[in-house]
Amino acid sequence: MVDSQQCPHDSRVSCTDCVLNSICLPIALEAEDIVKLDEIVARGRPLQKGDHLYRQEDEFSSIYAVRSGSMKSYTVTDDGQELVTGFYFPGEILGMDGIGRNRHASSAKAMETVSVCEIPFDNLGALSQKIPSLQQHCFQLMSQEIIDDRQLLALLSKCQAEERVATFLLSVSARKARNRLSATHFRLPMSRADMGNYLGLTVETISRVLSKFQKSKLLAVDNKEISIADICALKELSALRFE
């Protein structure tokens, strides 16, 4: 395990040492297989807030695991409008949107200081043939991307503002819990504008709904810090089922 005093952006951390290795790697991966994976992983200097990891239409060559910090993905429409398509937290994988046609379908930008592990896709494919559990994990990640996209479309097409915000907060909560962090107290690194863009709501509506949830004692909001006080009530409001 990584020393608690060690900088989370330290590029010297290996897959074996990383505290996220049971999250972004298949649990069944043997120690010698983790060493093989570590040999193809590249760790560069941290990205600063506003830096791009890749841009829409860039040639696809790698997928990326977020080691620390958070990122957003977005597309730019023909008329120049930005559409936020996702947010990524430590232990999560991004960049798979480029697999289909060898070009990224979206851009990825750091929302704060971010460290990523770059995994060259050609090398990963060759290694996956030797390690079945790694190949299965990659398929599971791609399947989850499809599910998330469909859920977002359903959320935007049918749900009211309160349902959208409740579902979003529960989604972040579930992902934090999966990463062995608090499911009821967390920081939202994205701006209210980005959250509203993602959910198809105005900044004013996002603020109004959060204020209403706070007055109803469902949660407490302190700038970007969220404390969920009544997760069961949030689940009742949500458009999706969360266990």
Describe the fold and architecture.
This protein is an alpha+beta fold. It has two domains: 21-154, Jelly Rolls (Sandwich), CATH 2.60.120; 160-237, Winged helix-like DNA-binding domain superfamily/Winged helix DNA-binding domain (Arc Repressor Mutant, subunit A, Orthogonal Bundle), CATH 1.10.10. Helix content is 39%, strand content 19%. It has eight helices and ten strands. The protein is globular. Mean pLDDT is 82; it is low at 1-7.
What is this entry, summarized?
The chain has helices spanning about 20-25, 30-40, 120-130, 130-160, 160-180, 190-200, 205-215, 230-235, and strands spanning about 50-55, 60-70, 70-75, 80-90, 95, 105-110, 115-120, 185, 220, 225-230. It has about 240 residues and is an alpha+beta fold.
Write the layout of secondary structure elements.
Elements: H1 21-24, H2 31-38, E1 52-54, E2 62-68, E3 71-76, E4 82-88, E5 93-94, E6 107-110, E7 115-120, H3 121-130, H4 132-158, H5 161-178, E8 185-187, H6 192-199, H7 203-215, E9 219-222, E10 225-228, H8 231-237
Antiparallel strand pairs: 1-6, 2-5, 2-7, 3-4, 3-6, 8-10, 9-10
Number of spatially distinct domains: 2
Report Rg. 18 Å
CATH-level-4 superfamily name of the largest domain: Jelly Rolls
Kindly name the structural category.
alpha+beta
